[in-house]
Amino acid sequence: MRRRGRDGDNGDSGDSGGDIGRAEGTAGAARQKRAQHSWLPWLLRTLLLTLLLGYISVPFLIRLFPSLLTKFVYLNFLAFPFFVDFRRPELLVNNTISLYLTTEPGVTVGIWHTVPSSRGAEAQGKDQRWYEEALADAHPVIIYLHGNGGTRAASHRVQFLKTMGAADFHILALDYRGYADSTGHPSENGFTTDVLALYDWTKARSGNSSILFWGHSLGTGIATNAARKLQEERGVQVGAVVLESPYTNIRDAGANIHITKIYRQFPGFEYLILDSMARAGMFFPSDENVKVLSCPLLILHAEDDGVLPPKLGRKLYETAREAYKDKSKVKFITFPEKLGLGHDYISFNPELPALVKDFLNMK
């Protein structure tokens, strides 16, 4: 009887041991789960605190080191499309050669020259000398000034060369200093120097052909800077200025572009960020420049521009129209939202050449 009791006792002890093991396992799992839950809030708090500190720090860093702003405005480090052989533009667009121009000691800019499509057959296999001589063939010449990011090989810029080349314009598309295969470092004054050097080079070869400045986005401010300097310092009027997707000045542009939206309600936004643009040597005052110009001025803006709102283009037009004595020299054309042209794709509109030629009284 006692043996059975002892055996029974042993059996009960085994069951108790199993229960204890299961309890300890359950407790261990619970501790592990609690540990996991304990570090997740800490990680989340740390991440949010880091983001908050970064958000708060940026405006003060910009105020202390305004040159940082040039990295956001001059996106020359975004050299898209990548792996382009700039010396072989014919891989992207017909009737085009690459050339290089020294604009000042130590600065050489890369340029693509597209000749009118009507001369495409002649252009096959021709060298740079032939292209230079072709500038005097009485077809108007566009000096094309692109926006702040990428290179002259970007798809919408290549499309511009194709569109306006087919409309019998010469196009000289340059990459400013510090962009693509051009040497030097970006600066507002440096851009003006580059454009005027290209203008002088072109004028020396184009005879009586009309020369136009065509700026897109950031390039609109560069175009008006160069046109104003030509007029004020040399008494020379450029043939016309075309501003595609423009802004009034770089401060207004900074206040309206989407990247600054998260800071517009930040206390001191204007002082810390917008005012720092001037401290970084960036002005691009197209609204002041157009008050001085007297050449034909055409402003183009898409209603669905999500980068620089069309209200800036309209404001610039109104400023110019008020200042111009001959109001017929100023025109503002908008493109409806349904076309989907946005900020970069006005050159894809097949009606663009006819609109420009009509403004310039060309056949």
UniProtKB/TrEMBL annotation:
SUPFAM superfamilies to which the protein is assigned, alphabetical: alpha/beta-Hydrolases
One of the record's GO cellular component terms: endoplasmic reticulum membrane
Cross-referenced Pfam families: Abhydrolase_1
An annotated GO BP: phosphatidylserine catabolic process
This protein's UniProt keywords: Membrane, Transmembrane, Transmembrane helix
Keyword check for Kinase: no
InterPro entries, per the entry: AB_hydrolase_1, AB_hydrolase_fold
A GO MF label: monoacylglycerol lipase activity
Region Disordered, residue ranges: 1-27
Organism superkingdom: Eukaryota
Signal peptide segment: none
Bilayer-crossing regions: 42-62
Record-given protein name: AB hydrolase-1 domain-containing protein
Protein source organism: Cyanoderma ruficeps
